[in-house]
Write a structure and sequence with these properties.
The protein has 350 residues and is an alpha/beta fold. Helices cover 34% and strands 22% of the residues. The chain binds guanosine-5'-triphosphate and zinc ion. It is an enzyme of class 3 (hydrolase).
């Protein structure tokens, strides 16, 4: 598997002129304290160097699936990871129990397929949440409406209409992993050397769709590629595979945990049409909740903006604001703690 097929960004070499492509690899599996890293030369069971462990300022210094790392190969199939050299467009979540710490889940993702099933799962609020999360990260969202074999064509048309009305211009693919309807369209959107992942609630059919994309070869043959971990991937929670058609897929990015943690402008991309209207609000700091002369409220009353979209917009905005205030608080606590430590040191040195 060439580095190019694994999505190698050539720009890495600009910053590391004394190295060559083989000094870099992509993290394809993450285990406890161990990684599998792949490049042109093969795949390697890798650990991080002591140096990286000791200089790490927080958990974000450690590799995650999808990262490009600089490594040193030794023996035939082992490597030491020196540093993460390329991580953008990452999925993150808020760490459990540690307020506001952002944890990386997977990185260098070009497109996320956001899957909902037509039967019980269909929910446009959730869809907007996933979209926002993708826009925040710089990941292109594509909506997949799966299990279309379960409903009539008329009902499907209604749903498409509803989606188009609420999520203007969103890329939408209707599929059935069972009847394989729409699967060729899905396959056609997947490009070589680009990285994809599937997001969506449990049971919507993510694994089933992935199996069809792999022509049902994935589980039968073990991990794709010439890994020394063949067959072990079933025990891995998260892994990266190259599809038969050439795209790269990050499996199982743990979407149930994916939250809304970013302070980037995802919301204003998802709700660009609301923010356009908001330019006409009387007050520039309008919260669009109760103000007189609020153009957004007026548009909701005129049914130019759907009530549901408006409520969801406010809800997601509140969540984001809450997150930002916890981050600010944490930073302050961190500073306070640093001051205490300094004071203690000063006392000791007296
Ligand atoms: N009728 C129908 N059933 C489907 C389709 N796709 C998946 N299923 C079924 O839905 C169930 C859940 O599918 P999975 O592929 O395991 O769903 P998932 O999203 O991977 O679920 P998690 O692994 O829990 O996140 C299985 O029983 C599948 O056979 C479809 O297009 N049509
Ligand atoms: Zn307003």
């Amino acid at each position: 598997m060439s580095n190019a097929a694994l999505g190698f960004p050539k720009s890495i070499l600009n910053n590391y002129q004394e190295f060559n492509e083989n000094d870099f690899g992509r993290v394809i599996e993450e285990h406890k304290e161990r990684y599998v890293v792949q490049n042109e030369l093969g795949s390697f069971s890798a650990e991080i160097t002591g140096q990286l462990r000791f200089t790490a300022t927080d958990r974000s210094s450690f590799p995650v699936v999808g990262d490009w790392v600089r490594m040193q190969i030794f023996d035939e199939d082992k490597a030491l990871v020196h540093e993460v050299v390329h991580r953008e467009r990452a999925l993150t979540r808020q760490a459990v129990g540690r307020d506001a710490e952002v944890q990386y889940i997977a990185s260098n993702i070009d497109t996320a397929f956001i899957v909902e099933a037509v039967n019980r799962d269909f929910n446009l609020n959730r869809m907007e949440r996933y979209m926002t999360l993708c826009y925040d990260a710089g990941i292109h969202p594509v909506f997949i409406l799966n299990k279309v074999d379960l409903i009539s064509e008329d009902r499907l048309e209604e749903m498409k209409f509803e989606i188009e009305n609420r999520l203007f211009g969103m890329d939408l693919i209707c599929t059935s992993a069972t009847s394989t309807e729409g699967m060729s369209k899905l396959k056609d959107t997947i490009e070589e050397a680009k990285t994809y992942c599937f997001l969506g609630s449990s049971g919507v059919g993510k694994s089933s769709l992935i199996n069809v994309l792999f022509d049902d070869q994935l589980l039968a043959t073990g991990a794709i590629g010439d890994g020394n971990d063949r067959g072990k991937h079933t025990t891995t929670s998260r892994s990266l595979h190259v599809l038969p058609s050439g795209g790269i897929l990050i499996d199982n990015p743990g979407t149930r945990e994916v939250g809304m943690v970013s302070d980037n402008d995802g919301l204003s991309t998802t709700y660009a049409y609301i923010e356009d209207i908001a330019e006409d609000c009387r007050f520039s700091n309008c919260t669009h909740v109760h103000e007189k002369g609020c153009a957004v409220i007026e548009a909701v009353n005129n049914e130019e903006i759907s009530e549901e979209a408006y409520q969801n917009y406010l809800r997601l905005g509140r969540e984001q604001a809450h997150f930002e205030s916890t981050v600010a608080e944490r930073r302050k606590k961190g500073k306070d703690l640093a001051r205490v430590i300094k004071d203690v040191k000063r006392l000791k040195n007296r």
